[in-house]
Amino acid sequence: MSLFVQKYGGTSVGSIERIEAVADKVAASRAQGHDMVVVLSAMSGETNRLIDLAQQIQDKPDPREMDVLVSTGEQVTIALLSMALKKRGYDACSYTGGQVKILTDNAHTKARIQRIDVERMRRDLDAGCVVVVAGFQGVDDEGNITTLGRGGSDTTGVALAASLDATECQIYTDVDGVYTTDPRVVDSARRLDRITFEEMLEMASLGSKVLQIRAVEFAGKYKVPLRVLSTFEEGGGTLISLDEDDEMEEPVVSGIAFNRDEAKLTIRGVPDTPGVACRILAPVGAENIEVDVIVQNISAVDGTTDFTFTVHRNDLAKAREVLERVAEELGAKEVISDDKIAKVSIVGVGMRSHANVASRMFSCLGGDNINIQMITTSEIKISVIIDERYLELAVRALHSEFELSEPRAAS
Amino acid sequence: MSLFVQKYGGTSVGSIERIEAVADKVAASRAQGHDMVVVLSAMSGETNRLIDLAQQIQDKPDPREMDVLVSTGEQVTIALLSMALKKRGYDACSYTGGQVKILTDNAHTKARIQRIDVERMRRDLDAGCVVVVAGFQGVDDEGNITTLGRGGSDTTGVALAASLDATECQIYTDVDGVYTTDPRVVDSARRLDRITFEEMLEMASLGSKVLQIRAVEFAGKYKVPLRVLSTFEEGGGTLISLDEDDEMEEPVVSGIAFNRDEAKLTIRGVPDTPGVACRILAPVGAENIEVDVIVQNISAVDGTTDFTFTVHRNDLAKAREVLERVAEELGAKEVISDDKIAKVSIVGVGMRSHANVASRMFSCLGGDNINIQMITTSEIKISVIIDERYLELAVRALHSEFELSEPRAAS
User: Fold this and answer.
1) A166: closest CA among A227, A115, A212?
2) Per-residue pLDDT tens for A85-101?
3) What are the structural domains, with CATH classification, of chain B?
4) By Cβ atoms counted within 10 A, which residue in A337, A383, B282, B347 is the most buried?
5) What is the C-alpha to C-alpha distance for residues B121 and B6, in angstroms, rounded to an integer?
6) Signal peptide: which range, if any (chains A, B) (predicted)?
7) B208 — pLDDT class (breaks 50, 70, 90)
8) What is the CA radius of gyration of chain B?
9) Is B99 on the interface with A (CB under 8 A)?
10) A19 and chain B in contact, CB less than 8 A
11) Contact predicate B41/B8, CB 8 Å
């Protein structure tokens, strides 16, 4: 018997009409004989409405009470969907995070799941009942309501699929899958039928915002096949699964990711002594500024080096302030910054076994006279920082260079 | 140390401003050194909004899911009030019915409280924390969310006060207490400082809609002193407590209740055989029609009798239909009905020990030429059915006859 966990986001349950449409989809899967667990977000807009109420009282609302408040959003949708399923003649039963014992730590508003008690769900599934679970929420071991943070419903879906050893976790959203790159930039961008967890992680963290990163990590760790599909259109979506080398010929590159939100900072002429990287970055981290790309080249003949990193554009002013202070302490030459940059990356497990992918990328960009300012690489990803004016051009050139518009070899 | 349970209704927490005002009141009590438990309803309008969502899906929504849905209303207000208390520097912690283990039976949408686990609340109270509990809701022994039905927050307040052996249960509402009669009918109607549970029950069931009857019954059973006060005005409200004869000189009559919603049905010339009352009323009850006043006089010389009772006006047509059928079966003469009637009652534990209260009532009404159509009596209440045109006149005459505008003897 196959068991599917289906997760529907806020847009998918944003009105009574849409909840009825979700009920149709769930009922259709159930009618095919599949055991069904459904995870729901709050109706779109509802979580923001609740946060707004709280902020009218406290600028920084108490985290424990915030979780009590916002967790009501999903509680509403699970009740309504269960009603809609019963109306269609299907047995259904709704559960809050606390009721199915989604046990988390007590980090309110950003809790992490520790354990799920599946006994009650198993009993319902065995009785042919559709189990409808509130996403995004749990309880700590004292019974306090917790939430997993924004987008946490994806994580709930994957965690339930892992605990119940589900056949597949299906994430229904408003896009119909994962694309080789953003179709708004490249017309011929193609939906991928399959992608590996690692590739998806690189794609997600680089700006293809389809799935919550934590959910993908979780799915990879517990080997839960994850499928992204559209609530509003038909189609098989994209299956995110383990890298199964035997079964398919890997393409070299799976997709092109990019990000326009970064800014670059360089501290020039730093005396290159051991521990200098830490002395530069620790004060930045202490201000809660996240650093993305970091590049340090070998020292110049005078024993100094240049150290460059990127941060989110919103953090540039604060980061620069910190860095000016650090530069003075270290006796560095100067601090320069630039927020007119963009990051472009090629991602693919295939590049592990193919040499020359990097040089092919650089020569392609060079062919269009795009200057590369920084380069970083990992096993399955190569990222470059370029002038933001050339972003679209670079993405289109690379998409074409690696033949991403062509269907992959059969999988 | 005194412990107060304060319950605030939907109007009292109907907006952020009002929740802030409730926080001020609670904080003031806490600042006086009282231990505080607060029970809240949903923001006014919220429960109806949720019911409306459900009814867009199912005409008769599934009761279990209905409880999951509507219980979110109180969950929102407890979180917001706890935030408002913390903003004021008071420690506060919110709990759903499930979290403080308000254990009920499994009669969804109209569950009854069976037991409350006070351990966690005691711990919080001992630590100086204000405990904020969602009214109207609980869980059954399988952990399913239940609700107590409309107005159930009063019951939650009283049940918590009983379990915690509270000094007083204070019900904050939009009226400032219990009056000798409706001030809209009698200008000089006076707020009662005290009233007994029994009197309050008679007043409530007769139409002075201040408190939920079940809450008053519950308070009487567990001897929880109950105080009704206004959220919006200062004042000591009305204390509902045991009849303490020693402490005060009872007035003969405490208040005048009335009801315009009834209709009267008479079945005439019924053969007066044993069991005839049951043969008349059982079919009415079988149609879920509630019967209020019942009067049967001794039989006439021909061995037949007339049997009269009242029902809610909305049920008149259905009741008459049932009664026509019964009349035919029993060989009765005819069925007549009248919906232009009203019920007026005098209520007071004092009448137990005073003769002639009834004759004083009847002579007062007779003095104004008001014809009495039916009479029923209990130990602490006398009710008459009259033509509805004379209702206001009757209430005013009786209010004056029993000197209800005068303050009671010192209590």
Assistant:
1) A227
2) 999 999 999 999 999 99
3) 3-245 (3.40.1160.10), 249-402 (3.30.2130.10)
4) B347
5) 15
6) none
7) low
8) 24
9) yes
10) yes
11) yes
| CA nearest to B92 within chain A | A65
d(CA B37, CA B122): 10
Q: Which of A64, A68, A82 sits opposite B65 (nearest CB)?
A: A82
- B134 contact A CB<8A: no
Which chain A residue is nearest to residue B77, measuring alpha carbons? A69
Query: ipTM of this model?
Result: 0.81
d(CA B296, CA A213): 77
End-to-end Cα, chain B, rounded Å: 24
Q: Which of A52, A72, A106, A130 to mutate to probe the B interface, most B CBs <10 Å?
A: A72
Handedness of CA B393, B395, B401, B405 (dihedral sign): negative
> What are the beta bridge partners of residue B337?
B265
At A232, list the tokens. 């509003």
Task: Count the neighbouring beta carbons within 10 Å of the beta carbon of residue B313.
Answer: 14
The torsion of the CA quartet A190, A196, A201, A202, rounded to 10 degrees, works out to -60
Interface test with chain A among B68, B117, B144, B146, by most A beta carbons within 10 Å: B68
Structure tokens at A209: 């915002």
Please compute, for residue A342, the number of CA atoms within 13 A of its CA located in the half-sphere on the CB side. 18
CA distance B122 to chain A (A): 15
**A168 and B CB contact within 8 Å:** no
Tokens of B131: 């405990």
Task: Summarize pLDDT for A206-218 with one digit per residue, the tens.
Answer: 555 677 788 888 8
Q: Are A283 and A318 spatial neighbours (Cβ–Cβ below 8 Å)?
A: no
Residue written as token pair 């022994």: B141
Contact between B87 and A57 under an 8 Å Cβ cutoff? The reply is: yes
Beta strands in B54-182 (DSSP E): 92-95, 102-104, 113-116, 130-134, 137-139, 145-147, 168-173
Which two three-digit tokens encode residue B28?
């003031």
Cross-chain CB nearest to A54 (options B50, B69, B83): B83
Handedness of CA B239, B245, B249, B253 (dihedral sign): positive
pLDDT score recorded for residue B410: 42
Cα A272 to the center of its chain, rounded Å: 36
Tell me the shortest Cα–Cα distance from B56 to chain A, in angstroms.
7
A62 to B53: CB separation less than 8 angstroms, yes or no: no
Task: Pick the closest to residue A30 from A95, A125, A154 (CA basis).
Answer: A125
- Nearest alpha-carbon partner for B339 in B388, B372, B304: B388
Per-residue pLDDT at A341: 95
Strands, DSSP E only, in B181-224?
Answer: 194-196
Which residues, in sequence order, are CB contacts of B272 under 8 Å at separation 6+? B299, B303, B304, B305
Residue the block writes with tokens 């995070």: A97
Place of tokens 């590159």: A253
pLDDT, tens digit (0-9, with 9 covering 90-100), for A372-392: 998 988 888 999 999 999 999
Name the residue type at position B270. Answer: V
Strand order in the sheet with A130-134: A92-95, A130-134, A35-40, A3-8, A168-173, A226-230, A238-241, A194-196
| A149 three-class SS | coil
Give the closest-approach CA distance of B146 to chain A in angstroms: 13
Interface contact flag, B86 A50, Cβ < 8 Å: no
As a residue count, chain B comes to 411
- Token pair recorded at residue A237: 């979506």
Six token digits for residue B166: 């509270």
**Chain A interface test: which of B18, B52, B60, B62 (most A C-beta within 10 Å):** B62
Are A87 and B50 in contact (CB < 8 Å)? Answer: no
Which residues, in sequence order, are bridge partners of residue B240? B195, B226
Query: Which chain A residues are within 8 Å of B54, Cβ to Cβ?
Result: 79-80, 83
Query: Which class for A36: exposed (0-12), middle (13-18), buried (19 or more C-beta within 10 A)?
Result: buried
